């Protein structure tokens, strides 16, 4: 089991979840593709902090649940409890995490420090 960041994070990226994560398993995916695909207007291009969403690396998440209650836009769910309209985000979190090299992971890791 792991937690998953879903659609409401796009355009928000509040990071309250990052502040409580004990293992730093959040990553900043700065791809305007997600804003466009899900109809969330944004000023900026790929690589800008304002575009895209945060994801949780499924291999790093320890399933503690601390992030879920901290998310102000209710974008985080346990993978077995993701609402039907957000199910595709299970794959998005996994695919984005697994597509990054070690260097990219380190560059895009969100930490509370």
Describe this structure in words.
The chain is an alpha+beta fold. The chain has a single domain, classed as Alpha-Beta Plaits, CATH 3.30.70.20. It has five helices and five strands; from the N terminus they run E-H-E-H-E-H-E-H-H-E. The strands form two sheets. The protein has a three-stranded antiparallel β-sheet. About 30% of the residues are buried.
Q: What is the CA-atom radius of gyration, in angstroms? A: 13 Å
Coarse structural class: alpha+beta
* Helix coverage percent: 25-40%
The helix tally amounts to 5
Instruction: Find the CATH topology.
Output: Alpha-Beta Plaits
Provide the number of structural domains.
Answer: 1
What is the CATH level 1 assignment? Alpha Beta
Descriptive terms for the model:
two-stranded antiparallel ribbon, alpha+beta, globular, 31% helix, 5 strands, 14% strand, 113 residues, three-stranded antiparallel beta sheet, Alpha-Beta Plaits
């Amino acid at each position: 089991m792991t937690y998953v960041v879903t659609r409401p994070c796009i355009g928000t990226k509040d990071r309250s979840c990052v502040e409580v994560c004990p293992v730093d398993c959040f990553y900043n995916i700065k791809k305007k593709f997600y804003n466009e695909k899900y109809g969330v207007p944004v000023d900026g291009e790929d690589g800008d902090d304002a575009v895209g969403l945060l994801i949780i690396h499924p291999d790093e998440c320890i399933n503690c649940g601390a992030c879920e209650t901290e998310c102000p836009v209710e974008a985080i769910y346990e993978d077995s409890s993701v609402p039907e309209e957000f199910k595709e985000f299970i794959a998005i979190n996994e695919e984005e995490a697994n597509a990054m090299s070690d260097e990219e992971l380190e560059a895009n890791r969100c930490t509370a420090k």
